[in-house]
Q: What sequence folds into this?
């Protein structure tokens, strides 16, 4: 496999040239490298090859991708395939199939036979292995084996296979095994090269960890000290909690209660018995909350923020350096000598841009060329060439002045006096205001009771009014402009109204055909009906600005969502192994006794059972996610922790404390 | 009163010179102003006067104080008196007396006769008026009347007097009046010139308010929309809450519940009935929390942060400008012409510094002179002079190498071989480690039970060990160095040990003399005993760094504390007027029935009464502060709000919602 032309991306050379380890400083014109493309001009395949390689460099620079790849013709072609969107989409698809298996494996939301899930998992593993093998063909061998990501994936694949085999064997011999490799699945999501954002978030957490740890230790020391004081102050007073249990008498329980107080989840209940005993004791708790919740939290935030800023600066500097280096490599591949300086000829430059960004228009490409070759000399110099990666990232909105299709088809009617008047009306401010008033009236009607037949009739009126509005707008404005990419509200409006129309028609049909009133469809109708009201925001300029800010936050939220998915998945799987079946939810058709204790006598007379938390359990991955969401919100988490500790062991609280710490770190990051 | 010499600080001139309104641009050497001090050199009183005025400018520049004052000799002398620390301390003292009156007025923690409290209040008002009158003598009349701060104080004094008279008259005729002027008292704390930091915080909040309002409106819109959806989705399902009440059937109650959910205080309880009904409904609440708690909170923070940064930049720029201007005014007062440039002579400079900072040492002053007059020309030029205000703010630690007093007194014994060995031992690392081990053993002993006589004996052993440690250290290290200002831990150690010694002795004496075991003293002994353990932090370098950060946060916390005091005070007084006496706490000696409902049948079977929150009431200012603290911590605030709404009116919830909004704004500021 190893050929002479192979070299790392940092030090690439035109193929066929002998390896020169010190050629990273590619600044001085190397006669060999510089001459190679020229000399090979006749050889069109050679030319094509270096163009392909240069395009790969530019593409990587444009998207800040830092994958070292081989420069042999075969590797470059494989690299193109590797980066093709179908391959990436397939990888993501199989990662999500792998993760989604938890829905169908015992304890399942919808149970599938073990054979089906295990075969699917093997298929996923095969795909992952194939993807990794493909990557190994693209990247130099020593780089591949030095990258912990690849090792990590391989070990995970291996461990999962071993686990599957052992579990299957145990299953055949009717022994209940533990699928211990399942929490490892998110490793695929993190470690495949596509998930750069999530990996960066993890790296940033890892960088902050050492400094956070010291603050955390000091914080824990403070909690332990206060707990000791609490033991001494309240331990011998024979006080009772609201539930009649002894108050602050066991050191470990005090530490847990004081930790919960930091999250403020048991305030003010934990204070009340002492406060009832003596007014002065409230000072103890107030000082505790001020120090351990407010002051320590601000120190945490300060540490994280400083660290984050420091590392961000490094990361950005490194990215900029890598980008520049890749662009210089691309330049070196394409350059020819022109009057004492090396340049890239115009036609070659155009072919490169066509390769890198096939879907940009000819006019756009001409515009880019005019920027890069300002003096229209017919070539691009090095300085301008390097800027190309950033130029390609600038979104150019092509304003095409289409004329309205109706104008083309029925010119005379469309431009007749009544039509012109109608179009003027729709464009007038009063038209918008009128519909704002309609929305407000609609809001009042929605709030009123549904049973009244007049109101359900009104609903049809409103729906038709909205449809008329959209049709009028489509008549007045050019449809392609109306549904342009950046017209968020038009898209929003039309889809909500269309969905509402479909759902309402469906609901009415179902009502008239069957006696059964479909709950799901009705719910959707309700939600869509209310969502329609959101449109009123669009009329107020200040709100529109804030909404744009909100929409801009979405990408950050997605990275955060990926991070949360990983954490939730791991904790869910572990939680299901520990707590599965310990707490049961019985619907309305169960005996009262069972429902009262969530099917577990250990929960008798606990806050958990009294608050009817039975459905907060780890009996399948969907329920687990809901419980973890509740834990993320923090409120009442001690009730959940205590409940699950009662049905298993006191040590189960550690699971909840760990989750809380992980979530806090995740959120403040 | 108005004399020719009077002018504002922005445009000051040497006294006796005719007013020149355009002299603010004092840059070009004005022959008159420049010559005046020179010509009056013989007139020592005149000279003294301009030095005094210059010193006032420098002092103001050093502490960033921006009080415009008259430049007449009498006004300058009054200005010195106005800024004297005793006057400032007296003002603060009377402000706190005025605020503390709430402790003694009905509803009181300790009731004093109305005559006493009202006379004290009148006395405070007189003091405030006197202070204001003093200020009016210092500052130019038109500036005084333009300043809203002064107007505010005067109106408040007047209103309080009116209120006092009306209330007193009503009282004599046995009609129960309302002391409505009491919530105005914090105005004195905010508006006297001394509370610059708190005022700045308020200003910064006021600046952010307009932008926050828009985000808040959008947020409320979102809450209202979700509430409408909730009404439609869950309203007709006949679901019941845990308490058996109808679930989500009244729109206003839904809005309140949804607002509470934003603060996460009723999560997951508010979700459970819908979640039990159908799994899918949990998505509604999860989406709600993600949008309204997490996303909106980050938008809030972003808006506040951007605004804060913008205004901070302006404020800092303005401060720097004012400082420079004041220094230039001072320079103009003292300058003489020396070789084509104006300078300040060395002896005059020294007298100025002596006036501005009387307590710095001669060597420190010489050092400053060497910095200002680098080339030792015998004078200070303008550029160096302007820097003086900043130079004075630099803390210079004078390292005096005192020899140990014992070395002076008993030289031979102190330097004898055993003494040297002892000193070497104390300075050794092992000595520190040994005491760390002792602290750890001590911690174990503290955690053990108190009843054991052996352990109470051990307590004496530990106490003596700690005292021996301090004595040994004082023997080895020079006491003045040991107790230097920056030796936080030495101070901490010694005071804790001394306090523990006194408290333990007191406790033992009380025990042996009376049978009564004083609870307060014992509590203090416990707390001091645990506080001793904190010392172990000092042994770990990383912890010491974090502790320094924590201690550095204190000044910011104090400003925040002042802000919180103002908010708490206003809400407490209002809360007492509304809720006073509605909820009663009965100690152990009351009938069970009464204790169960907190003395109010409206609270029967409520979460408030069941959680035994009776002591969370507004029956005196101390209790009110505790309730407001609990509301600040947010958890369970809806239980408190519901409780107080039940004993008064549903509208009482507005009080709690308003407090929550104010606190959120205060905290995120």
A:
């Amino acid at each position: 496999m190893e050929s002479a032309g192979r070299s790392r991306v940092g030090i690439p050379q035109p193929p066929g040239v002998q390896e020169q380890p010190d050629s990273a400083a590619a600044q001085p014109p190397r006669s060999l490298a510089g001459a190679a493309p020229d000399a090979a001009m006749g050889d069109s395949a050679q030319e094509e090859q270096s163009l392909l390689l240069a395009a790969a460099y530019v593409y990587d620079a444009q998207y800040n991708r830092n994958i070292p790849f081989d420069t042999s013709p075969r590797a470059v072609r494989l690299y193109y395939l590797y980066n093709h969107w179908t391959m990436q989409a397939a990888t993501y698809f199989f990662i999500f199939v792998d993760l989604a298996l938890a829905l169908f494996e015992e304890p399942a939301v919808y149970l599938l036979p073990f054979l089906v899930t295990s075969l699917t998992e093997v298929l996923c593993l095969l795909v992952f292995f194939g993807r990794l093998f493909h990557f190994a063909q693209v990247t130099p061998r020593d780089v591949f084996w030095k990258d912990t990501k690849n090792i990590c994936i391989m070990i995970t694949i291996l461990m999962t296979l071993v686990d599957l085999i052992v579990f299957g064997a145990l299953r055949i011999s009717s022994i209940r095994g533990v699928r211990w490799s399942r929490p490892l699945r998110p490793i695929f999501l993190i470690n495949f090269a596509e998930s750069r954002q999530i990996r960066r978030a993890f790296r940033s957490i890892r960088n902050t960890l050492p400094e956070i740890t010291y603050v955390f230790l000091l914080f824990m020391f403070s909690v332990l000290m206060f707990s000791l004081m609490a033991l001494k102050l309240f331990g011998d007073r024979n006080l009772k909690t609201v539930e009649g249990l002894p108050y602050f008498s066991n050191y470990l329980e005090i530490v847990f209660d004081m930790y919960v107080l930091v999250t403020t989840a048991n305030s003010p209940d934990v204070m009340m018995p002492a406060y009832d005993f003596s007014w002065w004791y409230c000072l103890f708790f107030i000082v505790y909350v001020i120090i351990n919740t407010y002051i320590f939290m601000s120190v945490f935030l300060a540490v994280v923020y400083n660290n984050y800023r420091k590392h961000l600066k490094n990361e950005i500097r490194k990215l900029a350096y890598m980008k520049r280096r890749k662009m210089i490599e691309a330049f070196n591949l394409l350059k020819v000598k022109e009057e004492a300086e090396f340049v890239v000829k115009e036609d070659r430059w155009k072919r490169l841009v066509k390769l890198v960004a096939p879907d940009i228009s000819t006019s756009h490409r001409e515009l880019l060329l005019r920027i890069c070759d300002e003096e229209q000399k017919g070539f691009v110099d090095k300085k301008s060439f390097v800027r190309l990666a950033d130029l390609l990232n600038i979104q150019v909105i092509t304003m095409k002045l289409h004329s309205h299709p109706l104008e083309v088809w029925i010119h005379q009617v469309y431009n007749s006096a009544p039509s012109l008047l109608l179009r003027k009306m729709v464009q007038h401010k009063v038209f918008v205001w009128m519909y704002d008033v309609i929305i407000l009236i609609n809001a009042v009607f929605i709030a009123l009771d549904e049973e009244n037949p007049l109101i359900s009739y009104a609903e049809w009126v409103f729906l038709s009014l909205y449809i008329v509005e959209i049709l009028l707008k489509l008549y007045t404005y050019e449809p392609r402009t109306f549904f342009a990419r950046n017209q968020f509200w038009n898209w929003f409006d039309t889809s909500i109204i269309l969905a509402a129309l479909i759902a309402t028609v469906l609901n009415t049909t179902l009502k008239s055909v069957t006696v059964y009133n479909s709950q799901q469809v009705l719910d959707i109708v309700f939600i869509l009906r209310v969502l329609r009201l959101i449109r009123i925001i669009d009329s107020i300029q200040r709100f529109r600005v804030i909404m744009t800010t909100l929409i801009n936050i979405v990408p950050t939220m997605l990275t955060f969502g990926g991070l949360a998915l990983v954490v939730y998945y791991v904790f869910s799987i572990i939680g299901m192994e520990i707590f599965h079946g310990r707490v049961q939810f019985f619907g309305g058709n169960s005996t009262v006794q069972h429902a009262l204790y969530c099917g577990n006598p250990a929960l008798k007379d606990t806050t958990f059972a009294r608050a009817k938390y039975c459905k907060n359990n780890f009996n399948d991955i969907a329920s687990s996610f809901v419980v973890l969401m509740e834990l993320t919100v923090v409120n009442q988490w001690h009730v959940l922790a205590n409940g699950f500790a009662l049905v298993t062991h006191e040590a189960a609280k550690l699971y909840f404390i760990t989750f809380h710490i992980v979530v806090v770190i995740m959120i403040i990051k």
